[in-house]
Inverse folding.
DNA sequence: GAATCAACATACCGACCAGTATGTATGTAG
DNA sequence: CTACATACATACTGGTCGGTATGTTGATTC
């Protein structure tokens, strides 16, 4: 190695680890492959991260967190929240559709693989999901204040269901490696989002009631 | 071994493999642990299954398929489909809630782990999901004929969204290891199911239109 | 420019794992 | 009773993996 740039080294390890985890999962991710792809040696890796788990944690805390922020927090910061979510959903659909074999959502893939096996992963991933839900809930509240979202909607509950449904739709498409499933599910989700919209003609019978459980 | 019962041997291997996969995923499943738990030797295992993958395939074809059939096909074979689905959802909620650390849905766990990595798994799992969707769609059609389900509902699309949302809800609860998330999501799903119900007072504005994509 | 430390580099280790080679015992058909 | 196939049992192998011990080099400080 001619010149040294520890920050860049760390960053390239993180990104390669993210890609490796995206393709093979955390447990299927091989440090040797990450090192080969980055031209970093094992000594350098273990200088920046104490062990494989720490590398995985950092991927959640830095890469996946930023990913959700870019996709779901920033775009919903202003404008009509329902419209913005429909746009984001469309973008996400295009991203999913761009792969030959659908790999799904990196965050949810890791969540489903590791949540039951390691509380360190679980808690870190839960933080990112909570951030995501918070972004949607806040946007919906703003929509209520601006008159674009029905006032009897429980924004926290709606946000939780939206996130669950998004991951469910992506997972369904991945299971069958079939975009038609993605579009069909997306239609169901769109229908739900539309039911949150304030409209002078609509009846409140199908709106999300202020309810906490069951 | 005193007496021989090859069918029982095979069955116990299948069930132990299912449990091992449920807890650690297919790739995390260890043949040694399966053998230890069943008191079967490696020679016997490789007599019944050519390799680990064949064992995994058999778990999908036999165990997981039966599981979905028992939970989602048989109960929906008669009666009001919406009510039956709400009951099934309740039962499934109880099952998920019975674990200290939530492991989620065995079918979807395996689907998310393996679909992008192995087409053999993917196609077998897709068959089970298709069976599931078909059971719901058929039940909804019967509901339409009997007057309990809105006639303008696209039953295939609704079935697909229901399956996706169910898995999304379970996955969300697993991610946070939080039953509150399960109940919140379940409320959203219940709301969607209720929107499919035929009712003299309801307006059709939120019903699932006859649409194919987008 | 000597000392020091962060930032790498290389070689090696023990554990685990799927799979195999080879052998043995049990049931069954003639 | 013999022959043979099914149903097991045991011991071993090659490969991959995460992790470590130890050595080297580039940057920084005084």
């Amino acid at each position: 190695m001619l010149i040294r740039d520890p920050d860049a080294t760390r960053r390239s390890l993180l990104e390669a680890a993210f890609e490796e985890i995206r393709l093979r999962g955390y447990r299927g991710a091989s440090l040797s492959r990450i090192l080969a792809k980055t031209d970093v040696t094992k000594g350098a890796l273990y200088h920046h991260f104490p062990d494989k788990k720490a590398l995985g944690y950092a991927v959640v805390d830095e890469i996946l967190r930023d990913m959700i922020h870019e996709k779901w927090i920033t775009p919903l910061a202003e404008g009509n929240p329902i419209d913005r979510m429909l746009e984001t959903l469309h973008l996400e659909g295009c991203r999913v559709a761009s792969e030959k074999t659908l790999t799904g959502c990196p965050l949810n893939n890791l969540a489903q693989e590791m949540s039951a096996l390691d509380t360190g992963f679980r808690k870190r991933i839960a933080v990112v999901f909570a951030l995501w839900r918070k972004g949607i809930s806040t946007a919906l509240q703003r929509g209520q204040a601006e008159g674009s979202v029905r006032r009897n909607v429980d924004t926290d509950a709606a946000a939780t269901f939206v996130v669950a449904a998004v991951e469910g739709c992506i997972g369904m498409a991945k299971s069958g490696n079939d975009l038609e499933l993605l579009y069909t599910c997306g239609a169901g989700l769109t229908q739900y989002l539309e039911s949150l919209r304030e409209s002078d003609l609509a009846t409140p019978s199908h709106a999300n009631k202020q309810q906490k459980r069951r």
